[in-house]
Amino acid sequence: MSTVPAPTSPTSPPAPSAAPRGVRTRAARAGVRRGLTEFDRSLHTAGDIGYYVVGAVAFAAVLWANRNGVQEDFGVATGVFLLPGVLAMIVVFTAAYGLATGVATEREDGTLLRAKSMPNGMTGYVVGWITRVTCEVGFVAALMMLAATAFTDGVWRSPSVLPLVLLLLVLGLVASVPLGFVVGSVFKNPRSVGGWGSLVMFALIAVSGLFAPAAALPGYLQVVGQVFPMYWLGHGLRSVLLPESAGAAELGGEFVLGAAVGVLALWALLGLLLAPVLLRRMARRESGSAVSARRDKALQRV
User: Fold this and answer.
1) Rounded-to-integer distance, Cα 188 and Cα 185, Å
2) Disulfide engineering: 63 pairs with which of 37, 79, 264, 273, CB 3.0-4.6 Å?
3) Are strands 76-77 and 70-71 parallel, antiparallel or unpaired?
4) What's the number of CA atoms in the CB half-sphere (13 Å) around residue 235?
5) Are 102 and 129 spatial neighbours (Cβ–Cβ below 8 Å)?
6) Spatial distance between the Cα atoms of 79 and 69, rounded to a whole number of angstroms
7) Number of C-alpha atoms within 13 angstroms, CB side, residue 3?
8) In the chain, where the domains are located
9) In the chain, where do the E strands start and end?
10) Could you read off the pLDDT of 98-140 as tens digits, one per residue?
11) 274 touches 182 (CB < 8 A)
12) What are the C-alpha distances in Å from 281 to residues 122, 175, 276?
């Protein structure tokens, strides 16, 4: 006697997005591990250690040579006056220029293509780079702040200074990292990033007032500088580390910390929305033949 099968349950099956979400989570965790591993490896590489330490030693030497120096126009020690620009430069160069160079290099050697071929590999790829860059910025910034603390009086003039500096560095990092992905996706190889990319980066730094008052620039360059996050990162750090009277040298004649935080947050939001789109488009154009052609072209230059 045959048995009539029971009617199927009307309940719906598990949502199909559950598995992909789990895959994305695993990919993100793998990206964090990759970023931490690469940063740890860089700490055991002579060239990378030189990059980290030489800049900090040079900054410490400048502070030592000017340990009794005072910026008369602002009434602060020379070290305090230099620190905002130095910290902003670390974020910009590491999170934007350095990341762009790394992405372009891995595009040329096929690392990006391998990431594309794995499930949610681009998620792990992006998270890995963000993790590594965050570690690098934090490590170098800590060295610079230790040097400033050791050789300069009055850096941390109130208990709120350090938390505000850390907040601005995080916002500046998040705002600059997408720029690095964008530049790295536009240029096809690291030599282009080192050439045209460095020119663009130095031009933006020049109009951002990191080391010279932006008020001395022509009006149109002042407008250009205020469009990009470099200006607002430097402005925010100066507003925290320098006395209020130093705001007279800023555009508008005063510090506007709230505006700096808002612009950096807006850049971070726009960049995080735009960068994955550009990277996915770049990854779709990647193929084994394209990687092989770029590799052959690079070998011809050697």
Assistant:
1) 7
2) 79
3) antiparallel
4) 32
5) yes
6) 8
7) 3
8) 27-272
9) 70-71, 76-77
10) 888 888 888 777 777 787 777 777 778 888 888 999 999 999 9
11) yes
12) 11, 21, 9
